[in-house]
Write a structure and sequence with these properties.
With about 575 residues, this protein is an alpha+beta fold. A hairpin with a 5-residue loop joins strand 16 (about 425-430) and strand 17 (about 435-445). The relative contact order is 0.09.
């Protein structure tokens, strides 16, 4: 039986019984079928059974009535170790039909049937074989996108494959490598996009980053720990912000905390995969070697480890030791010790006069602003820490007039509307944990229209909508857990992106810098930090930009930066370490 499209004749297997798997009001149904001819590939009492997957053409997986996306993935991955065989693809009436190998229980089913606990040897065998399957999948240029116990199945009981592990459900699989030039796909982040299952998804998936090989492996680490311990620390969250709370908990939980009372190989694996870079090649053989020590030499293992021979990269002991040393030297993330810091951004500028004030009480803001204005300086950036304000004033803003409002509200809507009518635009703002704010509005900007939004979560969907209308983010602020974002027309920018994380997103910022973006706005809550990076319409002669994170306001560093003609372009206080 070969694959195909269009309306084909009935498949060779015939339907004998309907399974109990029906999704989305019958848009997707799976049946049990029986082969009309024997197979040499498998043996046993149930070797003649197959699975028939019926998907209605109006289902989510069938874009505009076309064959399911999953078909194209199976077509590209035909014969890959650990994936079920596909024997037929075709259409009958309004349904697309795919005939596949009939498989047995999922690891979730096995875990449930064993009293919601698995032995260390069983989980170690799963780890070794799952790593071989994922390595084979990744070698074909795809990531699975939804690794979890429900998507790992054993072979059908009563057949020669009953101890073999399979990975199913490729509906969320995506390419990590370009199929033509074989380059790694480009990095991006869209915080409004989530793909996967909340419990097992990687932190990068929660944050909307482009999927790569590291995400499958992080999900595998959570899968293994769930099977071994029976529970993950972030289970039990409910409500509309469940994904946010789960991601926050994952970031707050260090590998040591997560793998407490587990054999060392589980902590080693978790720590290694959460430290992988976006385009880094995982060390599959090294990871497998950690678990092999736990499996032992007994021949009758609960899971067949044939992937070691079919897929496993051959590594000498010296090579594995060198890889292990390299892995152990990595700078660790997710320390389980969240911290807040000052974040300052410096841009290269021609020599100019700049002044800063910090730990300023609300009652003293006015006298600093007046003195600065008398010296020809305007406010360019403001921030708040512990109800005390930081003010940055300089002579390079290009503003011709400026007003500010220190208000008990976040933000003072009526005052902002009034000043818009007078031709002022918001140029900087900050909020305090108690809900007060300072909003600075200026004349002399290139802006022709402004809009702002205050939200309980980072408003990326609104930002994305305004981008399509020709607006760009020009400043941001936070107050406790609330966000305020200002977007302007005619901001003299041609492109913009967002980096949002529960810590300082070092890798993302450096990738954006390499692509010509520069930070133009930054703010942070006690939980998250957000950076907006932009491409200006006209590039500066010197595009040098640096960031600095310090526990105290960086007064000791500012003059050093000034000596290099680097001036404060933005300042914020909030979460930088998880």
């Amino acid at each position: 039986m070969g694959g195909g499209g269009g309306v084909l004749g009935p498949p060779n297997p015939r339907i004998t019984s309907r399974s109990l798997f029906i999704i989305m009001a019958s848009l997707l149904q799976v049946y049990v079928g029986r082969r009309t001819q024997p197979t040499k590939e498998n043996s046993g009492a149930n070797a003649h059974l197959v699975a028939l997957k019926f998907e209605h053409r109006s289902s989510k997986g069938c874009s505009f009535g076309h064959p399911p996306y999953e078909w194209s993935v199976y077509q590209a991955l035909g014969g890959v170790h650990g994936l079920p065989g596909v024997h037929y693809k075709g259409r009958q009436s309004d349904y697309y039909i795919m005939v596949m190998d009939m498989l047995g229980p999922s690891l979730w089913d096995v875990w449930n049937s064993q009293g919601q606990a698995m032995t260390q040897e069983m989980v170690a065998c799963i780890a070794i074989e799952a790593l071989s399957i994922l390595e084979a999948l990744h070698n074909k240029g795809y990531v699975h996108g939804d690794v979890k116990p429900e998507n790992f199945l054993l072979g059908l009981p009563g057949t020669s494959n009953e101890k073999r592990l399979y990975l199913v459900d490729l509906g969320l699989a995506t390419r990590w490598r370009d199929p033509v030039c074989f380059n790694h796909i480009e990095y991006d982040q869209r915080p409004d996009v989530f793909r996967g299952t909340v419990r097992y998804a990687s932190v990068h998936a929660h944050l909307g980053r482009t999927a790569s090989r590291r995400d499958d492996l992080e999900s595998l680490s959570y899968t293994l720990l769930f099977l071994l311990r029976g529970r993950l620390p972030w289970q039990g969250y409910q409500g509309d912000n469940k994904g946010y709370l789960v991601c926050k908990k994952k970031m707050q939980t260090s590998p040591d905390q997560l793998n407490r009372y587990c054999p060392p190989c589980f902590r080693q694996f978790t720590e290694a995969v959460i430290n992988l870079k976006f385009d880094e090649e995982p060390k599959y053989a090294l990871y497998r070697s950690w678990f092999l020590n736990l499996v032992g030499v007994f021949p009758n293992k609960p899971i067949l480890l044939d992937g070691l021979e079919k897929v496993g990269q051959k590594r000498s002991r010296d090579q594995l030791e060198a890889e292990e040393i390299d892995t152990s030297k990595r700078k660790k993330v997710r320390l389980g010790l969240p911290a807040q810091q000052w974040i300052t951004i410096y841009n290269a500028r021609k020599p100019m006069k700049q002044r800063y004030h910090y730990n300023v009480a609300a009652s003293r803001v006015g006298q600093h602003v007046v003195k600065g204005n008398d010296d020809g300086l305007f406010l360019s950036s403001v921030a708040c820490c512990s109800e005390l304000w930081a003010l940055i004033m300089d002579a390079g803003t290009g503003f011709t007039a400026q007003v500010y409002n220190l208000s008990a509200h976040f933000l003072p809507k009526d005052w902002i509307m009034e000043k818009w009518e007078e031709g002022y635009y918001i140029t900087s703002m900050a909020g305090s944990a108690s809900g007060s704010s300072i909003v600075v509005m200026s004349k002399g900007t290139p802006y022709t229209q402004q809009s702002y939004k205050v939200s309980d979560s980072f408003p990326f969907k609104w930002i994305n909508k305004k981008w399509k209308e020709g607006f760009y983010v020009t400043c941001m602020a936070t107050s406790h857990t609330r966000w305020a974002v200002v977007m302007s027309r005619n901001a003299l920018l041609v492109d913009q992106c967002v980096e949002l994380d529960f810590q300082y997103p070092s890798e993302g910022i450096h990738r954006r810098w390499d692509s010509g973006f520069r930070i133009t706005a930054a703010t942070a809550t006690l939980d998250q930090a957000a950076f907006v990076l932009s491409v200006p319409r006209w590039r500066a002669m010197d595009e040098t930009q640096e960031t600095l994170r310090t526990s105290n306001f960086p007064s000791a560093h500012v003059k050093e930066k000034w000596a290099k003609n680097l001036y404060i372009a933005g300042v914020a206080y909030g979460r930088t370490v998880s």
